[in-house]
Each structure stands twice: as C-alpha cells, then as structure tokens.
Write a structure and sequence with these properties.
The protein has 7 helices and 8 strands, in the order βββαβαβαββαβααα. Helix 1 (48-60) runs parallel beside helix 2 (80-88) and helix 3 packs parallel to helix 4 (148-156). The strands form 2 sheets. Strands 1, 4, 5, 6, 7 and 8 form a 6-stranded mixed beta sheet that branches. A two-stranded antiparallel ribbon has the order 2-3. The chain is of the alpha/beta class. It has one domain: Rossmann fold, CATH 3.40.50.300. It is 35% helix and 23% strand. The radius of gyration is 18 Å and the shape is globular.
Length: 209
C-alpha cells in the first residue's frame, strides 16, 4: 500500500466504483470520513485530542482490506492533524492543491514547507479552478487569477501536475454521484483529472503485487 497525502484548499470527494470493461480492469475506490461518524448536519466541535483520536480510528480501525493506494485528504493548515498523520504513518508523497489567488497560495506554500520539514516528498502542485469557460460563448475567464500556482511551483522548485478547470459539469456530476471521469470520460474536465492521476502515479513507487 502506498500512502499519498493531499493538502487541499478546495475539493470534492465521493465514493464510487469504476468498471472499465474495455481494458478488463476493475478499480474499487472506498471512502471513509469523519462525516460518517456524526449526524449529517452536525458540526464537528472537537478539541485537538478528540480530533486526534478520530484520526487514529480512521487510520487503524477501518478495515481497508488490501489497498494499492491510500489517499488522505487533509484541510489547509499546519496543525496537529497534519503533523500527526505525517509522523505516524509512512507517506510516499504529498500533493499540494490550491486555487490561484494569493490568499490560498499562502496556505499552499506553508503546507509544502511543512511536508519538507517532516521529510515527506512533495510530488507537485495542482492548480484547482484554474479557468472558467462560459458554456454558451466559450469565453475563458481566470476568476481566481492567472497561473498563481505555477509561480509558486517555480518558487518551491516543484512540478505542476495539472490544472482543474472551474466547470459546471464537475459540480453536477459529483452531486449526482457519477464523477465526470466516469460519466463524461472524453470531456476536457475528465481528461484533466486523468492527466493529474497519471502524473502522480509516475512519481510514486510501484505498489507490491
């Protein structure tokens, strides 16, 4: 099993099963979240020790089965959760995900430096919500700024793994439980996600068979 730590500013995740009949490949994706441990509308009002206890349960007491990859979604910041996860399980690499605006880039920069200090390899950066394309006229607008993550990557000496556009199809397909990579695999949005996935895999050790 290879652990990958995602340091995220904005993202959406769902549990789903991918069946790729042409390639005769079955990919099973499982999800576990703190949100499953409480009522759907209840806030997580936990102090540090309670949060750490929950993280420990998620890591040690979930029957994950035989995994090739374990992806850990962590919030922005450099607090107890991030440090404890980084120090208590072997992590093959971290991926920094950020939108291009300045305030988000500050957190992304701190996240990259934190992983370096705890000796976790940073595999690269992903620029999220990089551009909005009008579905009617196809005009492109950089709502959150242009290439801020690319500039940060140069500063840190890291690679850009890819760009995720701000596209209504991404939101709609996630809300319906059919992520765009499954429901619209030939779309530009799906291709963007698949490119990022391949770039990450290229930088990771091969899982044991």
């Amino acid at each position: 099993m290879v652990s990958i730590c995602f340091y995220l500013n904005q993202a959406y995740f769902h549990m789903y099963l991918v069946l790729c009949c042409k390639a005769q490949v079955i990919v099973c994706c499982f999800s576990m979240s703190m949100g499953f441990l409480i009522e759907e509308t209840a806030p997580v009002v936990w102090r540090g020790l309670m949060v750490m206890s929950a993280v420990e349960k998620l890591l040690r007491q979930v029957d994950w089965g035989q995994l090739d990859y374990l992806v850990i979604d962590m919030p922005p910041g450099t607090g107890d959760v991030q440090l404890s996860v980084s120090q208590n399980i072997p992590i093959a690499g971290a991926v920094i995900v950020s939108t291009p605006q300045d305030v988000a880039l500050l957190d992304a920069h701190k996240g990259a430096e934190m992983f370096r200090k705890v000796h976790v390899p940073v595999l690269g950066l992903v620029q999220n919500m990089s551009v909005f394309q009008c579905p009617k006229c196809k005009h492109e607008t950089h709502i959150f700024g242009t290439d801020g993550v690319r500039d940060l990557a140069k500063t840190l000496g890291l690679d850009i793994l890819g760009d995720v556009p701000l596209h209504i199809n991404i939101r709609e397909t996630c809300d319906s439980g059919q992520p765009v990579v499954i429901s619209q695999p030939q779309s530009d949005a799906a291709k963007a996600y698949l490119k990022i996935a391949m770039e990450i895999l290229r930088r990771l050790p091969v899982p044991p068979s």
